[in-house]
Design goal:
Helix content: over 70%
Radius of gyration: 46 Å
Number of domains: 2
Strand content: under 5%
Amino acid sequence: MSPTKLGFGILWPAFWTGLPFKLAFALLFLSFGIMDFENRIGLAFVMLLASPVTVFALPTIILGLDSHIGQGSGIVLLFMLAIPIDIWSLGIVGRTYFLERLRREPPSLLGLTLWWKCAVVGAIYVPILWYAQSVITEVSISAAQSILAADILKGIPLAEGISIKLTLWSTVATTALLLLLVVGFSLVGRVISGTVEKAGHAPENFQGLVTRWDLLRVPVDQAWMLTGLSGVAVVLSFLFWFSLPVYTPHPHDCCKKQEISVEPPFKPLESLNKNEKMLTHLAAQVEMLVEQRAKSELGKDRPKEKSKAGTEAPVAQDETEPGRPAAVNQ
């Protein structure tokens, strides 16, 4: 068997076997507030936490390459808890792989042996992979930008230019990462091959091997295993909910959504009746305003008539008074 296939066949199942337990502790520590990761650490967090080859590579990356993945005492505690989980997962996967694929007798303490060998390889190779991938990504981004800055491609619209640039540098970076991962799996397989060669052949036939490695996955007391797992899950769930500041999830103050009122369905008959009533009410108000205006104008005209009558009476007396002496003289 090739070293790459051997390394991938052991590391990949061990990755998925231990990942759920690690993520449960990571979520618990995040809810307690003792651990905080940077925004860009999504892929790096999975790569560093989920694989057993990254136990000793993390301090080298943080201290040697000056790459801070986060802060808090929970990061150290999380990686310390990941060590027994990795040993357990490598033990289960290793015994199954030795019996099923290699037809070899699993040696004692196989999980611990595979763990320290993978950890040593990771402590040397993962920092190299981290640095090489960073350099390749930066060079590919600058090369894609220089290609788009050429005279031939100056007429490309902005949106198409961004798509071309992203496609160019991401293709190069992804291809380089896959090649580096293949080299890493090959190195792990070469280190593990020594343990495989020292292991003796299994005495059972194929049917006996299938029964044996199948029984490795099924515990003797299944009820006790189910009770234990359920109890641990309940305890972790209560710890998670009690560690949250509030028990009911709600959006943050900066991310509140605007309340949208639902418009009622349109009913034509009700709308016509409402409009008819409104028109009747408005007509009554208009008539009332007209009457009030007429009354106010009538009240203003009466004082004017009285003032005119008062001024006309003295004038009439002045006109009749000079005629009296003529009548008397006659």
